[in-house]
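Input record, target 12 of the design panel.
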C-alpha cells in the first residue's frame, strides 16, 4: 500500500500526460511558453481570482509574497508554529520576525482570538495556514487584518481545492500561496507552486520578482530571484487540473468512509461551510507510539505531520522556551493515514482494521 498512490493516478491520465511531455521535448522549449500561460489562466478561473502566477514551489510562493510587501518599519509576521517549516522560514529569510501563535485543536488552524492579541503596531502580515486542507474563517481574518492595516497571506499549500462558504482556498486573502509538491492535493512531477492575487500592480510586481526583478531583458528594477515554474510542470499540472474536481469529490467519499468507520481516535472535524481538500487525513490518537507499532506490524504506511512544532526547533532557538499548549498537544497526538483519490476499498479497510483492535 502507498501512503499516496501517485502511480495509480499517473496510469489513469497516462496518455494525456505522456502526450504533453513528448510535445514539449520535441519543441525543446522548457521555460515559459503557451503551456504556462494556459495553466495560469485555468488556475485563476478554477480558484476565482484575477491573477494566478506559477512559481517554482510553495516555498518560493511564500518568499515572493513577502518580498512583494511594501517596505516600511513593520517587521512582525504572525504565523502558526504547527505547520511545515517553510511558512516561518521565509519570514526569517526576508528579514522579518515570526510571532508564533497557538492553534485550535478542532481544525489545527490559527486561533482567531490569539491572532487578535498578538497584533502590535509592528505587525506587517498574518500568514494563515490552511492545515491538512481545511481553511480558517478567512473572511473574519481578512476583516481583522483590514482594520489593522495588515496584509493577510493564506498559505494554501495543503488546501488547493478546499472552500469556505463556497469561496475557494487562495481566493480570499490579499495574497495566497499554494504548492504543487507531488504529494499535495494538486501535485506536479517535481516542484511547483503558485501565487494568487486580485490586485494588478501586486501581480505585476510578483511576476517581475520571480524573474530576477527584470522589467526588460537584462534591466533589473528590483532584487529578485529565479522562482519560475517550468513548462513541463505547467503542462503536467494542466492535465491534472482537468481531472481535479472529480478527484476532490472522490476524496470526500474516502474521507466519509474513514469518518464513519474509524474507532479509537478523533477523526478530522470539518466545520460547517467548509470543504476540506484533505491534503492529509490526520487523526488524533491517545497513545501514538502504540498505534504506530500496530501500523508497522500491519505494514501499513503512516506519517506524522508534524512531530516537532516550529517554536521547539533548533533553528528557532530564541523561541524554545515559548509554550503553545494546543500546538504541543497536537504535535504529540497527530497521525496521518494513507489517503488519496486512488486509495482502494481494500486498502482503506486494512487501515480501519488496525484501529478496531485498540
Ligand atoms: C508543503 C508546504 C509548503 C512548501 O511547499 P513546497 O512546494 O514544498 O516548497 C509550505 N507550507 C505548507 C503549509 C506546506 O504544507
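The sequence produced for target 12 reads:
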Amino acid at each position: 500500500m502507498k501512503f499516496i498512490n501517485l502511480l495509480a493516478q499517473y496510469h489513469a491520465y497516462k496518455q494525456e500526460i505522456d502526450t504533453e511531455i513528448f510535445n514539449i521535448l520535441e519543441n525543446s522549449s522548457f521555460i515559459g511558453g503557451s503551456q504556462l500561460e494556459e495553466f495560469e489562466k485555468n488556475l485563476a478561473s478554477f480558484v476565482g481570482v484575477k491573477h494566478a502566477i506559477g512559481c517554482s514551489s510553495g516555498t518560493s510562493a511564500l518568499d515572493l509574497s513577502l518580498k512583494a510587501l511594501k517596505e516600511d518599519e513593520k517587521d512582525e509576521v504572525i504565523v502558526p508554529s504547527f505547520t511545515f517549516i517553510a511558512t516561518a522560514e521565509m519570514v526569517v529569510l526576508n528579514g522579518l520576525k515570526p510571532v508564533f501563535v497557538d492553534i485550535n485543536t478542532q481544525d489545527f488552524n490559527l486561533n482567531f482570538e490569539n491572532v487578535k492579541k498578538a497584533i502590535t503596531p509592528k505587525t506587517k502580515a498574518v500568514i494563515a495556514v490552511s492545515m491538512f486542507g481545511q481553511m480558517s474563517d478567512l473572511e473574519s481574518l481578512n476583516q481583522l487584518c483590514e482594520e489593522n492595516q495588515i496584509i493577510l497571506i493564506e498559505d494554501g499549500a495543503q488546501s488547493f481545492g478546499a472552500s469556505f462558504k463556497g469561496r475557494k482556498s487562495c481566493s480570499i486573502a490579499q495574497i495566497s500561496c499554494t504548492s504543487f509538491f507531488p504529494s499535495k492535493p494538486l501535485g506536479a512531477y517535481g516542484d511547483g507552486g503558485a501565487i494568487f492575487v486580485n490586485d494588478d500592480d501586486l501581480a505585476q510586481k510578483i511576476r517581475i520578482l520571480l524573474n530576477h526583478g527584470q522589467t526588460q531583458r537584462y534591466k533589473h528594477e528590483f532584487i529578485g530571484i529565479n522562482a519560475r515554474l517550468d513548462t513541463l510542470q505547467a503542462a503536467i499540472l494542466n492535465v491534472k487540473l482537468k481531472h481535479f474536481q472529480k478527484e476532490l469529490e472522490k476524496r470526500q467519499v474516502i474521507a466519509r468512509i474513514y469518518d464513519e468507520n474509524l474507532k479509537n481516535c478523533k477523526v478530522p472535524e470539518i466545520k460547517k461551510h467548509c470543504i476540506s481538500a484533505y491534503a492529509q487525513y490526520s487523526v488524533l490518537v491517545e497513545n501514538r507510539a502504540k498505534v504506530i507499532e500496530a501500523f508497522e506490524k500491519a505494514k501499513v504506511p503512516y506519517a506524522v505531520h508534524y512531530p516537532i512544532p516550529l517554536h521547539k526547533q533548533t533553528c528557532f532557538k530564541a523561541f524554545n522556551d515559548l509554550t503553545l499548549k494546543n500546538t504541543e498537544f497536537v504535535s504529540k497526538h497527530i497521525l496521518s493515514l494513507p489517503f488519496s483519490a486512488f486509495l482502494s476499498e481494500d486498502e482503506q479497510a486494512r487501515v480501519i482494521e488496525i484501529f478496531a483492535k485498540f
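The CA atoms of residues 212 and 218 lie 9 Å apart.
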